[in-house]
Amino acid sequence: xxxxxIIVVMCELCELKIKTNIYLENEYFIILDCIDCHxxxxxxxxxxxxxxxxxxxxxxxxxxxCGRQFYGYNSSFFIDKNQRKIFDHLHWHVRLNS
Length: 98
Description:
The protein is α+β, with helices and mostly antiparallel strands. The protein has 2 helices and 5 strands. The chain has a 5-stranded antiparallel sheet with strand order 1-2-3-5-4, covered by helices on one side. β1 and β2 form a beta hairpin. The N and C termini lie far apart (61 Å).
């Protein structure tokens, strides 16, 4: 007798159970406030770190505009592409420059 165990690890970003202040959503990505950082973040809906370059450019453009609306048009901010908590699902935050 052979027993097969299937382990499913659910990703917070795949599930997105809590969606706070959604700025934009389409079939590829969503921009919403991060529930941990309380700043806008963009999440690619597919569980991957590999996004085509043209899609990355579109994501950056929308996230920059979102940052302008969130922080103000005269504020200095950047797109933080460092994956701090979830390492295998592409998401970026908009953060103020220090």
